[in-house]
Design goal:
Layout: H1 2-23, E1 29-33, E2 41-45, E3 50-55, E4 60-61, E5 64-65, E6 67-74, E7 78-86, E8 96-102, E9 111-117, E10 122-127, E11 135-138, E12 146-152, E13 155-161, E14 168-169, E15 174-175, E16 182-189, E17 197-208, E18 219-227, E19 233-239, E20 244-248, E21 254-259, E22 262-267, E23 274-276, E24 289-290, E25 296-301, E26 309-314, E27 321-322, E28 329-334, E29 340-347, E30 350-357, E31 364-365, E32 373-378, E33 384-389, E34 396-401, E35 408-409, E36 416-422, E37 428-434, E38 447-455, E39 461-469, E40 485-493
Amino acid sequence: MKKNLLIIVLTGILFSAFVQGQELGLFSGSIDIGDPKLAGNAEFDQAENTYTISGSGVNMWFDSDELHYVWKKMSGDLSIASNIEWMTERVDPHRKACLIIRQSLEPDAAYADVAVHGDGLTSIQYRETDGAVTREVQANSTSPKRVRIEKEGEYVSMSIAQDDGKLKSSGGSFKLPFKEPFYVGLGVCSHNAEALETAKFSDVAIEKIPKRPDSLKQLESTLEIISVSSFDRKVVHHTQSHIEAPNWSPDGKTLIFNSKGLLYRIPVQGGNPELIPTDFAERINNDHGISPDGTKLVISDQTETGKSLIYSMPIEGGVPKKITPVGPSYWHGWSPDGNTLAYCAERNGNYDIYAIPLQGGEEIRLTTAEGLDDGPDYSPDGQYIYFNSERTGTMQIWRMKTDGSDQEQLTTDEYNDWFAHPSPDGKWIVYVTFGTDVPAGSHPPNKDVILRLMNLETKEVQVMAKLFGGQGTINVPSWSPDSSKVAFVSYQLK
């Protein structure tokens, strides 16, 4: 009799779980994560195919979260998409309705989400490891009709649809490996301990992403800005064209980048890129820059001889004036007084750092080490030139006096460090790091790379972002004039 009773009880439990599963549609359960003051809840309307979720919670940020979460366990590459509509009057503009991938249900778990805020701000947020600080990549559009988060391999990205309902990549992917299985679902956080906010998620779709070779994918580019204080990122421009190497204008208003041999400018806030007229120069590479006074451009172009030569021209565009008659010569740095250029050049089979007056004339060789020296950029006080060199066997960051004397090594790790750019206030250098899988003398495209930041006083190095990039990401000076942000390009294969 007791055995039969046990079977009946167990059957009842299974039936209850089945009914709950049906009530939650695609998902297995719902839970308050963290310890929100007000209990959340979730309802599934099968007829309307909608999930109505109410959640409280102080925040989903820093090193822990409070929210109500509807979830299921999954593995592999996948996406989850939904329309999102707020059902309550706005209490806090930072309230969040989210599509979430979490490593666990613990409040400090590693996670990535697409968050639609109460004020329309849309961003992809992430905590790289359990207990780490949350960071975000803000989209360059707000109040979307539909959003999607995608996990493909070790990268996470976001797509957004406006009124036409067509999902398009917003750019700004990042590397975040999840251990399988992980949790996938929907969440709401009120950003106010005293409030319970409600959002409706409709037309929710979870799809597996099939494996495809990279040869069948298309490259997409994202022009971004990253904050030095928080390492939060913001998308300026996303495109299916290949773009490279942003410069930041001295007035702080404009970014200049190259694409398909030409130069373009775009407002820092985003918008439509504008072609800069460069007359005959139609093979401009990613070694270009803006003069300290903001009146001139310098370009490295291969149109005339098939080898890269350096030219100057007005900032608004015009006819380039040749500076280096011998190539290949690749510009990288402009002295703070505007009178001298530093560049990488191949002469007699060896690549070294050279300097030349802006008006042209005799070039001065500054380095003589065997192998590749590249990426020279002046310190804002005009005392040093920073550069990268493979003379020790791996590519490392060095600096020297502007006459080539007192060459000293600044980085000493096992990785390959390229293109050090000092901040206008002289406190930092930012540079891009390739892994040990890349030869020391190479900076190829489409690689896992790291943007890193060095404090020049303490020599402390911090990871700003892990991204898919490399060649074109940060080849040239790209600091904001106030030293608070850096512009760069990330890439995706979609």
